[in-house]
Amino acid sequence: MRERVRVRFAPSPTGPLHIGGVRTALYNYLFAKQHGGDFVLRIEDTDSQRFVPGAEQYIEDAFQWLGLEYDESPSKGGEFEPYRQSERKEIYHQYVRELLDKGAAYLAFDTPQELEAKRTSINNFQYDATTRVQMRNSLTLSQEEVQSLVESGAQYVVRIKIEPGIDIKVNDLIRGEVVINSSVLDDKVIFKSADELPTYHLANVVDDHLMNISHVIRGEEWLPSAPLHVWLYRSLGWEDSMPQFAHLPLLLKPEGNGKLSKRDGDRLGFPVFPLQWKDPKTGELSSGYRESGYLPEAVINFLALLGWNPGNDQEIFSLKELIELFSFDRAGKSGAKFDYEKAKWFNHKYIQSTPNGELAQSFLPVLAEKGVSAKPEYVEKVVGLMKDRVSFVPELWQQSSFFFVAPTSYDEKTVKKRWKAESPAQMEELIAILQEMDDFSAKNQEKIIMKWIEDKHYHLGNVMNVFRLALVGEGKGPHIFDITTLIGKEESIKRLKKAVSSINL
RNA sequence: GGCGGUAUCGUCUAGUGGCCUAGGACGCGGCCCUCUCACGGCUGAAACUCGGGUUCGAUUCCCGAUACCGCUACCA
Q1: Interface predicted TM-score (ipTM) of this complex, two decimals
Q2: Are the C-beta atoms of A431 and A497 separated by less than 8 Å?
Q3: CATH among 1.20.1050.10, 1.10.10.350, 1.10.357.160, 1.25.40.10 for A406-505
Q4: Quick check: A328 pLDDT over 70?
Q5: How many CB atoms sit inside 10 A of residue A236's CB?
Q6: With a 7 Å cutoff on the CB, does A186 touch strand B?
Q7: CB A238 within 8 A of CB A209
Q8: Cβ of residue A313 lies below 7 Å from strand B
Q9: Cα–Cα–Cα angle for A251, A257, A259, rounded to 5 degrees
Q10: pLDDT tens digits along A235-271
């Protein structure tokens, strides 16, 4: 057991960071910060075949956007650098050597083809205590043969030698004690001569030990190999300072079965990545939460509740509150299906509580894109009127374009429903009333117009809806006088005139 | 197939033997508010996988079945 809490998030740079990975990182972060500990980013690039350029930068950018700051990382450095496994080759070599010298591991020369042949000819073939005697490895070959093979440059791997018949206990913070008999484990490859790199299992154990990691918080997909990791700690003599484990349930597809995958997002119409990602090879574009108009706080809040809950009815949490409240006792054990509607609702909630000025700032670029230039103060007022009705910032345009651009057409259904024979005449009257109005405040407009409708015994709904149709182009939007006040007297009259002249029954 | 994990409304979940006629949220329906559309408020439909135990009493504990998920690579 380590005294200081130090956790790590250790993605492999094989593509953009998946939203499930973000949740894993978030739980790591919350746990570390709650205990005043360290949050470390380590890049696990031990698979040279699958390395994707740009992926590491993407990961750092994503966490920056989300506001989850690392204490140590490849870009930031730290006491235990390097934080990129490809730069730690010599370190691993040392421990591979040690394991070999101890007789806890051995060299295996079987080719992939030979292994494949074994797997197809023997069902449930597993490279272990019972089968390794029939394979080509340093246990079955003579010392001279092994030496000449290595010297001749033959490719080999190093396998961990698992002793059968031993119960291995993994103590998991979420699942309690999981016991697995070593006989079901196979002699996993821990090092490959081809690229001189260890596999995940060894690199992970060595680094966690060397970096003083106290808690390994990762996805459930690692649970089956946790006993192997315990075995590795034991073989290296590090069992006393072994980290505690917590295996998080997986994020599942919203529909059907299986874990959420990179392809699900755009197929189902929602992002699975924090940031937009362009595949460097195919040029394929995957959407991101940031680009879709999500606020990072909303994403964090939503993710935090997918697998953890506070035990009461509260659903909206700041990062600070999450740090205070998070605990593994309240983490779920079962996989959670990703519910996009709920994610939207969280964003809606966050938009509602974001100050108008801030929202206006993020809306300005959207307006610019539409070719609209408007004063920030004006945009702020519009946003204040409209933010309750949208889930995303870009959606603001669909809902409030009429504040910036006069309607060019009128919604057919609304026209049919609202535009009556008497409408043109009524609107002409209204135009006249507006023209004479000196005090154009919403309050005064309401007073005068309501009186006019009352005096003439007009139908309130009819008049107001026709008025709205002229201003907005359809049957939606905030209160009429909020609209007229904002767009102004002249523009209001102009829109009324246009409607009268262009809408025909 | 083998091994492991999990199992409450459609979804996220509360529930740790009696407080459960099972609570909340999203989504869905209705009503109210109202010049419209939203927001908001109220409200409705909607779940303990099955079978055995243990117990005076099981959603809750145990066993089994089933289902789902994961792992089973010289990927992580």
Answers
A1: 0.95
A2: yes
A3: 1.10.10.350
A4: yes
A5: 18
A6: yes
A7: yes
A8: yes
A9: 30
A10: 999 999 999 999 999 998 887 677 887 778 777 778 9
